Please model this.
Amino acid sequence: MSFRTIEWRDNKVVMIDQTRLPGEEVYNEYGDFKSVAEAIRGMIIRGAPAIGVAAAMGIALGAREIIADTHGSFFQQLSNVCDVMARTRPTAVNLFWAIERMKRVAEANRDKDLGSIREILKAEAIRIEEEDLAICKAIGRNGAPLIKEGATILTHCNAGGLATAGYGTALGVIRAAHEAGKNIQVFADETRPWLQGARLTSWELMKDGIPVTLIADNMAGFFMKKGEIDVCVVGADRIAANGDTANKIGTYSVAVLAKENRIPFYIAAPISTLDLSIKNGDEIPIEERHSCEVTHLHGFPVAPEGIRVRNPAFDVTPARYIAGIITEKGVVRGDFEQELRALVGQ
Ligand code: MRU
Model:
């Protein structure tokens, strides 16, 4: 891949600014945890695994910013930093997973001096980023056999290198199939209202020379019915114990259309996207974003001023629509609850 989504460089966090793609490839530098939190909230960085990495790096920055002469004061302030990160976006569980992991590492090293704890937190954040890249490659390896030679794959939103530390989950499966020499092509849903498909998925697949065709969201059914889509692969923001999966708004519609047209619909996601503490998708908190995302396109109004708007950023696809969940540890099918618990040993 010819871009870096996020990295720790010279004690700063560097991120590609996803609000400016595809027009401009700009990398922003962040030196404090509050600006990283703002970047997550403002979608400079987005995508479940990527915001997990950003939160971890933000906490590592926060740990460096803390002025404390006792461990008690340091840990109190670190807890505040974690709270700020946790309030950025509610749906993707990877964010909370990363925050918990950073807290656990800090606690496990409480007996060390503060300088060492700061270094350990920095190393852990970098490890989360490196692991995520390796996990995406494993998801790709496990998912590639599901993509047949000559297949046309429909994807929704961006579950690519931009949504992870690199390579991607859904796009990781597609990349791995392409790298295996399969002659495949992708249909990318534009993904209203934020246009992750139009702006990001199209951009990164074109950059990598993977054939991609952009369609408006309401065209998916048309192409499925005509027999032009062979398989759907999307990412996930949170997967409940029964397999119900939250992903970008519009995913549910794609899954229902896929079932109607007998097209397999797969989720590709790391284990860190599992939330086995919740029984089903009804318990997943759904973020509602600002109405201007619906009423405006690039600052240009496309609806009358004052119109009432709803803007849920995610929906939940019931498990019965999902042919399989592709993880770094293998593909889960059938009884999701039993299989997912077995996968993580719970
Ligand atoms: O609002 P976003 O852009 O953060 O939503 C992203 C998605 O819904 C992705 O499909 C999901 O996070 C999986 S990313 C590998």
Q: What stands out?
A: The chain has two domains: 6-137, 141-343. The CA atoms of residues 2 and 207 lie 8 Å apart. The first helix runs from residue 33 to 41. The mean pLDDT is 98.
